[in-house]
Design a protein that fits this description.
It is a single chain. With 190 residues, the chain is an alpha+beta fold. The protein has one domain: 3-methyladenine DNA Glycosylase, Chain A, CATH 3.10.300.10. It contains four helices and eight strands; from the N terminus they run H-E-E-H-E-E-E-H-H-E-E-E. The chain has helices at 14-21, 59-62, 104-111, 123-130; strands at 25-28, 31-41, 68-73, 77-83, 92-98, 146-149, 157-160, 174-177. Strands 1, 2, 3, 4, 5, 6, 7 and 8 form an eight-stranded antiparallel β-sheet that branches. Strand 3 (68-73) and strand 4 (77-83) form a beta hairpin. The protein binds a DNA duplex (13 and 13 nucleotides) through strand 3, strand 4 and helix 4.
DNA sequence: CAGTGGATGCTCT
DNA sequence: GAGCATCCACTGT
């Protein structure tokens, strides 16, 4: 097994970190797998929660890099971001999907679904499968329950427009593992 | 398959 | 009071 990702990994622009996260294995209490889909949200981005300044909800986004930012979506789901850049700068990468490889049985129980394809394909599903909740907001990513393992090989990555937003729609800041069966949605046709 | 609408809670205007 | 970085069930082809 390799060493965990260094803190310096996250102290960079989201536009560098986001594609670098594709293929990185995320585990929460031993449950998870390789990340196959993410979205970048930078400080100048009107679609970002941090765009209008710091609030109680988005405080973790402005905190030190290498920490989690977890928020509630549509009153029902949790969504997990990995904070980048530096203190006082709102920058984070939203995790949208991963390939279930570790603790698959646990994911099935939490999701009440059998098909591997539907276990962690989508930001809300990913959090439910891994047991991520608001309790994880602001927690360091290099300490339990989180584990992040570097990828072995450089994967083929495709950029596309982001999903579910109304502003900043033209930015191709969604990154996916090419050919993955575990995406939240298929890539738009070229 | 595509499209629609409801659930549900919190933040910010 | 509006608007969500969503998911699921249900409708109609």
């Amino acid at each position: 097994m390799s060493d965990a990702l260094s803190r310096a990994f996250f102290a960079r622009s989201v536009h560098e970190v986001a594609p670098d996260l594709i293929g990185v294995t995320l585990l929460v209490d031993g449950v998870g797998g390789p990340i196959v889909e993410v979205e970048a949200y930078d400080p100048t981005d009107p679609a970002s929660h941090g765009y209008r300044g710091r609030t109680p909800r988005n405080a973790a986004m402005f905190g030190p890099p290498g920490h989690a930012y977890v928020y509630r979506s549509y009153g029902i789901h949790w969504c997990l971001n990995l904070v980048c850049e530096g203190v006082g700068i709102a920058a984070a990468v939203l995790l949208r999907a991963l390939e279930p490889t570790h603790g698959v049985e646990r994911m099935r129980e939490r999701r009440h679904v059998d098909e591997p394809r539907l276990l962690a394909a989508g930001p809300g599903r990913l959090c439910e499968a891994l047991g991520v909740t608001g309790e994880h907001d602001g927690r360091a990513l290099d300490r339990p329950p989180f584990v992040l393992l570097p990828r072995a090989d450089h994967p083929e990555i495709v950029a596309a427009p982001r999903i579910g937003i109304t502003r900043g729609v033209e930015q191709p800041w969604r990154y996916v593992l090419k050919g993955s069966r575990y995406l939240s949605r298929a890539l738009p046709r070229a």
